[in-house]
Design a protein that fits this description.
Blueprint lengths: L2 H13 L3 H12 L7 H11 L6 H13 L4 H24 L4 E2 L2 E2 L1 H5 L1 H20 L4 H24 L7 H26 L4 H28 L2 H4 L5 H4 L5 H9 L4 H16 L2 H14 L2 H19 L7 H15 L3
Antiparallel strand pairs: 1-2
Helix pairs in contact: 1-17, 2-5, 3-7, 4-5, 4-9, 4-17, 5-7, 5-9, 8-9, 9-10, 10-16, 10-17, 13-16, 14-15, 16-17
The structure holds farnesyl diphosphate and magnesium ion.
């Protein structure tokens, strides 16, 4: 049995407890009010179709099952999380000038930036409509806060991109805002809908946040280690877009006391900003290896995943909790 088969089996077991609930989430996503404008129908269909992993709904549902029950309000909340996620990607592809997403041409590549932004706005409006039907002001507040955080994270990222002096504070602020806040909202809303005591809601929220940071660190790592084919986007895409992520920050720090090495790395990174990254990949990877940056990045992600697991030790042992813990382990080992 290959390592890949083992990973595939693991992820199936993680999805298993909420398999039928996820089918309901898919149905809810397909049932959003269809646009009347033909081009919007096409772009929304393109954005929502295909083999999305429904990772955020999975998180919502597992957190719901682990902390109580899964009712239709949990299903709808999971759908809201996915709609927000896809909307942010449509905006993000415009910001990043991305041509490929999940191996498919992006909406901006097919129909242009304006259609991508407006399709994202349409999905956000649909998320708001769903949320309004739940009659729960706290959920509205949780997801509105996520939207604010997402914008802040992106602005922080733009503000610090192409900057070799990017600080860890900025890196974590960006990661929490743009990734961990939605993870955290998925888990917090599960606790709210299950009427948990406030300390337990906060523990679920913390779980989501720490897990989200771990997930983002692995995302950063995959920019260096995964193949373009697996990722469905070009290699070193983040670095090419000026993002100084965990592996390179760790390497720059490791060469702090070796000014020549640090200079070589800085020059190479600057070249990636302007030249074909594929031709520079090997040289960059050699320097990262010398700095031990890949295992150190993984260790950092594992540390956050462990913090996440310890936040939810209070939950009773159920298949949902087991899957939730499994998800934090899988996220570290994933290859795309
Ligand atoms: C993907 O990151 C992007 C995000 C997780 C967040 C994007 C957020 C915005 C564009 C803010 C405003 C949007 C809305 C709808 C409020 P990435 O570029 O690191 O990952 P990728 O490799 O998947 O593109
Ligand atoms: Mg992007």
């Amino acid at each position: 049995m290959t390592v890949n088969t083992l990973l595939a089996m693991d992820i199936d077991a993680i999805y298993e407890p909420v398999q039928t609930d996820l089918v309901r989430v898919r149905e809810s996503l397909l049932a959003i009010v269809p646009p009347e404008t033909a081009l919007l129908v096409e772009s929304v269909h393109h954005a929502m179709g295909g083999e999305g992993k429904l990772f955020r709904p999975l998180l919502c549902l597992l957190a719901s099952g682990a902390s109580g029950q899964i009712e239709s309000s949990h299903i709808e909340t999971a759908a809201v999380a996915e709609l927000i996620h896809v909307a942010t990607l449509l905006h993000d592809d415009v910001l990043d000038d991305a041509g490929l997403r999940r191996g498919k041409a992006t909406i901006r590549a097919l129909w242009g930036n304006k259609i991508s932004i407006l399709s994202g706005d349409y999905l956000l409006a649909q998320a708001s409509l769903k949320l309004s039907k739940l009659n729960n002001c706290r959920l509205v507040s949780i997801f509105a806060t996520v939207l604010s955080n997402l914008c802040e994270g992106e602005v922080e990222q733009i503000h610090t991109s192409y900057n070799l002096k990017t600080s860890w504070d900025s890196y974590f602020k960006k990661s929490i805002c743009k990734t961990a806040s939605l993870f955290s909202a998925c888990c917090e809303s599960a606790g709210v809908l299950n009427h948990l005591p406030e300390t337990e809601i906060q523990a679920l929220k913390l779980f989501g946040e720490q897990f989200g940071i771990a997930f983002q660190i692995v995302d950063d790592l995959l920019d260096y280690t995964a193949s373009a084919e697996k990722l469905g986007k070009p290699v070193l895409d983040d670095l090419k877009n000026g993002l100084l992520n965990a592996p390179v920050l760790i390497a720059l720090e490791a060469f702090e006391a070796q000014p020549e090495k640090r200079q070589t790395l800085e020059t190479l990174v600057e070249k990636v900003f302007t030249e074909d990254p594929e031709s520079l990949q090997q040289a960059l990877f050699a320097l990262l290896e010398e700095a031990d940056a890949i295992p150190k990045t993984l260790a950092m992600a594992e540390d956050y995943a462990e913090k996440a697991r310890s936040a939810i030790r209070f939950l009773p042992p159920t298949p949902y909790l087991k899957a939730l813990e499994g998800l934090t382990r899988y996220a570290i080992r994933r290859e795309y």
